[in-house]
Amino acid sequence: MNNYIEKNRDKFLNELLDLIRIPSVSADSKFKNDMIRAAEFVRDSIANAGADKAQIFETPGHPIVYGEKIIDPSLPTVLVYGHYDVQPADPYELWNSPPFEPVIKNDRIYARGACDDKGQFYMHVKALETMLATNTLTCNIKMMIEGEEEVGSSHLETFVKANREMLKCDTILISDTSMIANDVPSIETGLRGLTYLEVEVVGANRDLHSGVYGGGVANPINVLCEMIASLKDENGHITIPGFYDNVEELTASQRAALNAAPFDLNEYKKDLSIEDVSGELGYTTIERTSVRPTLDVNGIWGGYIGEGAKTVLPSKANAKISMRLVPNQSDQEICDLFTKHFEAIAPSSVRVKIVPHHGGLPYVTPTDSIEYKAAEMAMEESFGKKPIPTRGGGSIPIVALFEQELGRKSILMGFGLDIDGLHGPNESYGLFNFYKGIETIPLFFKHYAKLKKGE
Ligand code: BES
Ligand code: MN
Ligand code: MN
Question: Any idea where the Peptidase M20 dimerisation domain is (predicted)?
Answer without folding.
Answer: 190-348
